[in-house]
Amino acid sequence: MPDPFVHELRVRYGECDPQGIVFNANYLLYFDVAFTELWRAAVGPWQEMVERGVDAVVAEANIRFRAPARFDDELRLRAAIARLGATAITTEIDVLRGDELLVEGWLRHVCVDTEGWNKTEVPEWVRSGLRRFAAQDAE
Q1: Which tens digit of pLDDT belongs to each residue from 123-138?
Q2: Which one, out of 27, 39, 99, 126, has a CA that is 20 to 30 A from the CA of 58?
């Protein structure tokens, strides 16, 4: 099993709700940050893919909350490609504070062409880059 991708961030004050914990919707932002940085490490800058006529859009998201993160917490976003299908990519993402699992979930992106936004296959050059962070049974 390859090592998962890890991106670190610190919770900013504006991401917290009046209860002093990270507002739940901000975890989707954290998931997007983790996925974008994984993509950059595995495939390259997102814009290069778009310039080649392909984009990836979120088709589905799932979040399970276990414990709250708070202002100034240092978080690790751990991401791995769980499924690398013909047209879709499923990425599992965990949010940790130290060794404590705070949030777990996944995003499913679907590849589309940039002209008509029609579903298209994951290009081989994208697939080969993402394999670096993919589970053995992802394909």
Answers
A1: 999 999 999 999 889 9
A2: 99
pTM over 0.85, yes/no: yes
The residues facing 49 across adjacent strands are none
Q: CA angle, 110 as apex, 108 and 114 as ends, to 5°?
A: 145
Q: How far is CA 12 from CA 3, 9, 15, 26, 51, in A?
A: 28, 9, 6, 11, 33
Q: Give the whole-angstrom CA distance, residue 59 versus residue 52.
A: 21
Give the Cα separation of 54 and 124 in Å (integer). 12
| Pairing verdict, β 74-84 and 5-10 | antiparallel
Token readout for 117 is 């936004």
Of residues 7, 72, 68, the one with CA closest to residue 34: 7
